[in-house]
Inverse folding.
């Protein structure tokens, strides 16, 4: 059964809404019209997010007698206008973007978004999100920053312990806290270049001195024995910088894939190669020869003038039977897009 109802629409007379971006804000202000009736006056302006521009906007809203300023919670960009308007005695409202959904099928621009938000706000169809007062915000920022610092400190401690384990230094097995007075002094000596286990163990203090024999044993594995690689080629192969060789009946097979090596080692070697390439040395010349191609007799690009090229046996093309490492480059062979290195 249908019953009659009466809607008493309460409209906020003076309201403003902001569509906030990183560089600018669009402000829509709606005021009652001097003419009798339900007509409204509307003003849409665009302002910079710089403090001076936002201050001018706040003074303008105070002059117009705006009762409420509504804005969406857009990333952290809402904070400057919210805090400035609050300091100027206005009533800023921060609303959830989910509560201000634009009608489907309508165009969406910054101006239209600001107008739509203002119309929704003046009919009191929004709920404000909780923004704590200024003293609570300052306390919250302080406590949260302290939590972040403690977390960063813990992460660094774990990283140092992992680094010691990778170096086969079992300091954490002997010392319950490697960041105590004794542990910090020992690690400082390690950084300074000290490698004698007995000297390092003698830095123990207080109750740690009872564990000097265990400390000497913990420090005995310091160092890296590079003699396990018979030649530099073995080291390059271990680091995954040497392409695999697969040949049968005088023909090469596969694409010479090197495999996945250590990305940190690859970055360090790449930086070293880039630095060496800028020097006037033998290695620098080799790097420049590999990076700067020259024309070959067939019109293709080769990495050195003395490397010939032919249609069937081009050394700068993968169809060549000659085993040669190749790399991708912008300065490439016109046929295959590679330059021999």
């Amino acid at each position: 059964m249908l019953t009659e109802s009466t809607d008493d629409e309460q409209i906020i007379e003076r309201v403003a809404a902001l569509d906030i971006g990183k560089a600018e804000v669009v402000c829509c202000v709606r005021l009652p019209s001097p003419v009798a009736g339900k007509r409204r006056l509307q003003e849409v302006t665009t302002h910079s997010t710089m403090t001076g521009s936002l201050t001018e906007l706040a003074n303008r809203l105070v002059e117009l007698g705006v009762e409420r300023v509504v804005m969406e919670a857009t990333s952290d960009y809402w904070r400057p206008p919210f805090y400035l308007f609050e300091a100027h005695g206005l009533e800023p409202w921060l609303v959830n973007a989910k509560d201000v959904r634009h009608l489907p099928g309508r165009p969406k621009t910054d101006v239209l978004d600001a107008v739509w938000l203002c119309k929704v706000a003046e009919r009191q169809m929004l709920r404000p999100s909780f923004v704590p007062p200024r003293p609570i915000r300052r306390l919250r920022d302080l406590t949260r920053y302290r939590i972040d610092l403690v977390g960063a400190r813990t992460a660094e401690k774990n990283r140092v312990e992992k680094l010691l384990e990778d170096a086969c230094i079992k300091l954490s097995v002997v010392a319950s806290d490697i960041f105590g007075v004794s542990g910090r002094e020992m690690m400082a000596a390690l950084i300074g270049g000290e490698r004698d286990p007995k000297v390092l163990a003698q830095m123990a203090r207080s109750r740690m001195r009872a564990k000097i024999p265990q400390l000497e044993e913990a420090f005995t594995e310091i160092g890296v024995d590079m003699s396990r690689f018979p030649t530099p080629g073995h080291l390059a192969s271990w680091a995954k910088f040497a392409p695999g060789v697969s040949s049968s009946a005088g023909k090469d097979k596969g694409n010479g894939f090197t495999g996945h090596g250590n990305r940190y080692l690859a970055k360090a070697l790449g930086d070293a190669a880039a630095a060496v390439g800028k020097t006037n040395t033998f290695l620098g010349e080799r790097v420049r020869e590999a990076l700067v191609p020259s024309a070959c007799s067939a019109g293709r690009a080769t990495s050195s003038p003395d490397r010939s090229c032919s249609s069937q046996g081009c050394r700068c093309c993968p169809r060549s039977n000659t085993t040669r490492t190749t790399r991708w480059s912008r300065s490439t062979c016109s046929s295959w897009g590679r330059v021999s290195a």
Notes: The CA atoms of residues 140 and 277 lie 52 Å apart. The longest strand covers residues 24-32. Confidence is low (pLDDT under 50) at residues 295-299, 301-341. Residues 136-218 form one domain.
